[in-house]
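Consider today's protein:

***
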Amino acid sequence: MNLPAPSDLTLAEKASLTSGDSTWETAAVGDRVPAVVLADGPHGIRRQDPASGDALGLRHSIPATCFPPAVTLGSSWDAELARRIGEALAAEASALGVHVVLGPGVNIKRSPLCGRNFEYFSEDPLISGVMGAALVTGIQSLGVGACVKHFAVNNQETDRMRVSADVDERTLREIYLPAFERIVREARPYAVMTSYNKINGVYASENRWLLTELLREEWGFDGLVMSDWGAVNDRVASLAAGLDLEMPPTGTDERITAAVRAGDLDEALVDAAAERVIRLVRRVQDIPRHDGWDVDAHHELAREAARSAAVLLKNDDGLLPLDPAAAQRVAVIGEFARTPRYQGHGSSHVVPTRLENSWDALRAAVGPATELAFAPGFTLDGTPDAELLAEAVAAARRADTALVFLGLPDRAESEGYDRTTLALPADQIEVLRAVSAACPRVAVVLANGGVVDVASWQDSAGAILEGWLAGQAGGAALADLLLGFHSPSGRLTETIPLRLADTPSHLHFPGSDGHVVHGEGRYVGYRHYDTLDVEVAYPFGHGLSYSRFAYADLEVTGTGDDAWTVEATVTNTGDRFAHEVVQLYTAFTEEAPSRPRHELRGFTKVGLAAGESRRVSFTLTGRDLARWSPSRHCWRVDPGAFTVEIGASSRDIRLRAEATTPGDGLVDELGPMSTLGEWLDHPDGRRVLGEHLKRAGAAGLAREDSPLIGLARGIPLIKFSTFGIGLSPETVAELVAAVRGTATH
């Protein structure tokens, strides 16, 4: 189909393209520009039935595969798995008549209380970017568009439509923007969705720096920018800033045409937005349509994902796995074993094609020698029930092992509001304590979309399997792990703190008076805990398996200017096949920390048979060592030593090697308000200033052994004009001109 250019359309037609036609469709222009169908889809396609008349009903969409959400998929540390799920999402979108999938969400988990954390991958921007890029690549491999969200700094649900996220430039660049940048540069998504919130006082949907200068001009994004649903406050200001599509429609197209006619809006901006809408139509118009998809295959893929992502936090004395063929009595306790909590609530809620639970899966998998008994233990609404508690204790007393399924109820975490506590419901903890007193072997299986407190009760459990929200096939996947058909291979993508008060954002989250100050800066998650050596329940990257792994032979080889290859050998020293997630960090040792102690810079997941070894390889570049320079407004690499770390978590570093970087050769520009210390530390500044001070008879001021140096180093050079040492304003201006004229970088 040949699509028109903006010049072929009237102003009113162009304006109509910048707003949706309905809740889930863009506007068409006659038969010349067809509509595009959008659907929520971070972990499954939520396609509303057009015949239902219910455009927003969250639990009445057409059935689709409910894959594990991002909290779970991220814990797999498996980008190839994410890509395959993206392909499956695209196949289902195509079959359901959907052109653009609204996902993935790649916002950073700043606080474990964020109600929407189940939709996001990690507290770390590298994992978020790598997993998000893989999902986008998979979705778009079949021609369906992906829409990355929520751009940007959407890290809470409290007051989300009005709050200003106040973040310094360096923190923005190093924590909250890199995942989006990686996805835009590497995966080329068809669309980006703006967030509701303001960023430093400006709504994301009206933020020209964000949408035009950064996203398009710096990162090279050539796709469409759409709003989150209801995120536009000023149509004209948003379009001028770089927002192409308002969703859903507000019936205000005449504001665009009126602004153009009044001279308040350049029609070229309307043309550009219309062209980007037409470009999206062109990209998705030839998606092959199918009658359906392989429901069984997609269900099995969801099972594989849930299995790959569950994290074995604790396993004292090898309590897990259970032998499915052994003569044993096992009590399965907890309503979640029978009624699984498998996804979060809100716009991403998917009606699954089927739903498995662990109780049925365990009964189907164990041999005749194993006796299984079930007791719900508690209600899902948190109402204490003495009868259910007594039943659970009785079942535990008769058992050799108790599998206790605990978690957060559906209402505890959702889009639209944040949590106020990390605690599990009190009635569930009461059941666990009572069961632990009655049975010598207790394993806890968790179902939750955000981190929960484990420190206060883990002494009552010999093993803890964090299943997260495991999707529609999670019941069978958890049974696979509990019975040892597969070894757990998930790793934490967020730190589990000992207490809520230990979290770096605790004193700032969720803000007040319309502002949330990101006072912890770049010290989010493990960057905070590890830099300050704060004790945690379980560190970032942690996860056990049913095997053991040894690391050896680390080699760091320079391959060019600020480029290295990092290699190490990993060996499965256990007696069964298992996966290990090898993590690469770069570390810096500083007397007064000016950056996180170490940061994740690479990872790879390897499956090894018993006794098998494999050489793993990573690439490091200058960008991996860089920090953002607010003074230069660019990335900078400082010369000096750094440490390459290879480990199994941020606190289980197995190998270390020292390396050095020459830096990028750039030096900060000096000016009158640069301090004496900055002049002395500058290669040209020290020489130029030193020569002047020598002529003025004040050379001692620049000596590091001078008794005045500690006081003087922090004084801007221009302030010395009153000290009688020949540094008049005119002289300082001459020195500035001289150093700028001699600088080579």
User: Anything to note?
Assistant: The longest strand covers residues 549-560.
